[in-house]
Amino acid sequence: MYLPKQFEETSIPVLLNLIKAHPLATVITMSTSGLNANHIPMVVAENVGATMLLRGHVARANPILADLAVSSQTLLVFQGAEHYITPSWYVTKQETEKVVPTWNYAVVHVKGQMRVVDDAAWLHQQLEDLTAQQEGTRDRPWSVNDAPAEFLDQIKQAIVGFEVQIESMVGKWKVSQNQPPKNRATVVEGLEQEGTEKALLMRDLVKKNL
Questions:
Q1: Structural domain harbouring 73
Q2: Does residue 201 sit within a domain?
Q3: Tell me, what's the pLDDT at 209?
Q4: Residue 188: inside a domain
């Protein structure tokens, strides 16, 4: 990933917070026919000592499992807030007209080694953790154990767990840092006026860099 220094984010807590807020990863592996991409929700494993792990599950029929025979090296891409930035928001448009559109975004790339975990207890815990991650803020959160045990057993027989031991995490926060302060301020105003959920998420990131 092209990463100018001004866009680099190195804080591990910040990177992990993005992963937790946007857990659907693009998981890229190498197959016998070339690169393979799957979209899989992940959970950050807690309390595993000095090793950081990401945990997920896939259908047993998913060809990603065969990819491990080629290479266990895996790239996971977590996409955070993103938004188109119109040059009409820049103060310097009125001053020089020397402006162009761009796209702001925050993203985390994780590289690591993937291994299959074919263990019923591990898989049940992963399902509970993933469900709690998404259901925890609901008034009446659904629990894995709400499902009938026989039905749940059938589901678990059709899937298999995996985990990725994190070797590196790279964060890119491209949020108008390359613009003068007056342009950043008007980008915040423009996103505020746009008012959509994604615009307000980007507004908050740009504001942190004013």
A1: 5-84+104-177
A2: no
A3: 79
A4: no
How far apart, in whole angstroms, are the C-alpha atoms of residue 143 and residue 118? 22
Q: How many domains does the chain have?
A: 1
* Cα gap 158→205, rounded to integer Å: 40
E strands of the chain, at which residues?
8-9, 24-31, 34-41, 43-44, 53-59, 73-85, 102-117, 159-174
Q: Is residue 123 within 8 Å of 60, Cβ to Cβ?
A: no
93 phi and psi, to 5 degrees? -60, -45
**Encoded tokens for 162:** 């995996």
Which CATH number belongs to the domain containing residue 137 in this structure? Answer: 2.30.110.10
Q: What does the pLDDT look like over 160-205, one tens digit per residue?
A: 999 999 999 999 999 999 999 999 999 999 999 999 999 999 999 9
**DSSP state letters, 87-135:** GGG-HHHHHH-----EEEEEEEEEEEEEEEE--HHHHHHHHHHHHHHHH
Q: What span, in angstroms and rounded, lies between the C-alpha atoms of 24 and 55?
A: 12
- Integer Cα distance of 116 and 56 in angstroms: 10
